[in-house]
């Protein structure tokens, strides 16, 4: 399962973190990946939850951004794996379709929710909130 990687700069030289973007929509995934590439040392991308989980099993991430609704498995699968592999990671769930049950699960898992459509500033602000929350109290798997 290949994971797309953006051009990477040295994390130690830049003093920045590694991020993972998981979304089945090519346009959204590439857009989020490009936005994050300006703020993170490396940004990897996966096309679905299974690839996202595989990426989390093979690499440490500081920030995980996942779509909620994808074919196969839900983005909640990615969130749960992130909580197991890197409980201190900032996790953001992006979606255009979340009901109250989804929202409750996202909150229970200690992830931030961002509704589509969103702007660049909204995305970066949501990631900052997720990072601040992760620093204050890492979620338990």
How does this structure look, described?
Helices cover 45% and strands 19% of the residues. The chain has six helices and six strands, in the order E-H-E-H-E-H-E-H-E-H-E-H. The chain has helices spanning 11-14, 26-37, 49-58, 75-85, 100-108, 120-136; strands at residues 4-5, 18-22, 42-46, 63-67, 90-95, 112-115. Strands 1-3-2-4-5-6 form a six-stranded mixed β-sheet, sandwiched between helices. Strand 2, helix 2 (26-37) and strand 3 form a beta-alpha-beta unit. It is globular, with a radius of gyration of 13 Å. It starts with a strand and ends in a 5-residue tail after the last helix.
SSE layout:
Elements: E1 4-5, H1 11-14, E2 18-22, H2 26-37, E3 42-46, H3 49-58, E4 63-67, H4 75-85, E5 90-95, H5 100-108, E6 112-115, H6 120-136
Parallel strand pairs: 2-3, 2-4, 4-5, 5-6
Antiparallel strand pairs: 1-3
Strand content: 15-25%
Structural class: alpha/beta
Number of helices: 6
Rg result? 13 Å
Give the helices and strands as they follow along the chain.
Answer: EHEHEHEHEHEH
Helix content: 40-55%
Q: Which strand order do you get reading across the main beta sheet?
A: 1-3-2-4-5-6
Residue windows where pLDDT falls under 50 for at least 5 positions: 6-15
Task: Give the termini distance in whole angstroms.
Answer: 25 Å
Shape: globular
The total of beta strands comes to 6
Give a short account of the largest sheet.
6 strands, mixed
Overall mean pLDDT stands at 87
């Amino acid at each position: 399962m290949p994971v797309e990687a953006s051009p990477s700069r040295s994390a130690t030289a830049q003093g920045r973190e590694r991020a993972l973007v998981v979304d089945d929509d090519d346009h959204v995934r590439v857009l989020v990946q490009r936005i994050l590439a300006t703020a993170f040392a490396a940004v990897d991308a996966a096309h679905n939850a299974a690839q996202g989980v595989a990426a989390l099993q093979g690499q440490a991430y500081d920030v995980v951004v996942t779509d909620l609704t994808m074919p196969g498995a839900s983005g909640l699968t990615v969130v749960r794996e992130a909580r197991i592999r890197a409980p201190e990671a900032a996790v953001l769930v992006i979606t255009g379709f979340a009901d109250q049950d989804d929202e409750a699960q996202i909150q229970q898992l200690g992830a931030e929710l961002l509704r589509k459509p969103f702007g660049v500033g909204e995305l970066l602000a949501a990631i900052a909130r997720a990072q601040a929350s992760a620093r204050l109290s890492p979620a338990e798997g």
